Amino acid sequence: MADFDVVVIGAGPGGYVAAIRSAQLGLSTACIDEWKNAQGKPSLGGTCLNVGCIPSKALLESSENFERVTHDFSAHGITASGVQFDLAKMLARKDKIVSDFTSGIVQLFKKNKVTPLYGHAQFLGREGDSWRIGVAGGEEVKAKQVIIATGSTPRVLPQAPFDGIRIVDNSGALAFTEIPKRLVIIGAGVIGLELGSVWRRLGAEVTLLEALPTFIPAADEQVAKEALRAFTRQGLKIHLGVQIDGVTQSDAGVQISWHDAQGIAQELVADKLIVAVGRVANTQGLGAETVGLKLDGAGRVEVDEHCRTNLPNIYAVGDVVRGPMLAHKASEEGVMVAELIAGQAGHCDLNLVPGIMYTAPEIAWVGKTEQQLKSSGVDYSSGQFPFMANGRARALGEASGFVKILADTKTDRILGVHIIGPMASELIQQAVLALAFSSSSEDLARIIHAHPSLSEAVHEAALAVDKRAIHI
């Protein structure tokens, strides 16, 4: 029976990063993963690399390029006629990117001497100071330390169980072989909006049905309102406060019966239905009950601020524990745990995890929203700057949206930054750095920002906190 210092269960962004960092720190490390690709072969990288972050961004970019050619280039004096797209080639490009990255993890494991093991992992018990873990197929390993990084799976809506053909989750929605004429998405969160944007640009009529009465409640309210206006102008039909009554199938398509926010009965017929109502922690079949691993009411592994579970030398990171279900959060928790195991001072501040939506316009935020500050009674100041007044944004032809900075009125310490507009996913990193070092808005206002650049919008928003923006 192989005996390791560390065994990581799961090879998604939390797991494979934790395994590599553990190995870098001189710990003998194995990583167990059961993911298989469409060909039935092991494929490291978890949901993110296989059917999540990476393939969705590939299709978002392809569909955005098509829309730029057909709608936006004329403003630049560029006329194109007879423009067509090849969906099969788009999907092949997406699959090639996925394959390159998943095989890249195999090479990273070799480079760092991480032992990959393929199959479903299950706790079998404790033997001395080690944990026994079974791997489907009959293999068994021992580990002094275990890191659970089993990720999450799509939440199933009882009224609309997945059939993989007409009713699909995010994985199926990334593999449509033809453009659905009528596409309905249940859930207007990150997944629903990003996938809806892809297929709307390529010709689908897209309707999103959201149960919550507010749009993107995790975002700043002003940003969410701006986003709703932008997506509606683009042609996405978004209904809030929806109650799904039933879903049936016939030769005509998928029939969705629902009540709108006013309680009026409605019905839609779709060629494809995407169910994107969140994700649930993947703890099924882990053997938690066998060893007494404590789970919370949502099925997540209970952990402390350092991702320690209730059992000695067992940690859990990523989607399988509390906090936002984001790849970058999982990776940083994985690094933290590896460093703690090695005796170092690992650290991961969940207050500094940026939220990002890769729609057009992009949306990104970090820290507190204005509504959170109001409800907490915090005295704050706000500075805002529109991309319409930013030279680089105007040159790009992407001048919608704004940057908003919230700072403590007494100390000027930045409390939150919210961006909707071009390259928000990149601009937000400046804000994360500022919050990490407890910067004031004055700090950002005094830093020289290159001209012309999108980052000048952050600079001007910082100036606006003190009501001294230059260009508005």
Summary keywords:
single chain, 472 residues, alpha/beta, FAD/NAD(P)-binding domain, Enolase-like, domain 1, 3 domains, seven-stranded mixed beta sheet, five-stranded parallel beta sheet
Q: What would you note in describing this structure?
A:
The chain has 472 residues and is α/β, with parallel strands linked by helices. The chain has 14 helices and 22 strands. The strands form five sheets. Strands 1, 2, 3, 4, 5, 6 and 17 form a seven-stranded mixed beta sheet that branches. The protein is globular. The termini are far apart.
Q: What is Rg?
A: 24 Å
With helices defined by DSSP (H or I, 4 residues minimum), what is the helix count?
14
Mean of residue pLDDT values: 97
Main sheet specs: 7 strands, mixed
Q: What's the end-to-end separation, in Å?
A: 68 Å
CATH topology of the largest domain, anyone? FAD/NAD(P)-binding domain
CATH superfamily of the largest domain: FAD/NAD(P)-binding domain
How many domains would you count in the coordinates?
A: 3
Look at the structure and give the CATH class of the largest domain: Alpha Beta
Helix percent band = 25-40%
Total beta strands: 22
SS-derived structural category? alpha/beta
Q: What percent of residues are in strands?
A: 25-35%
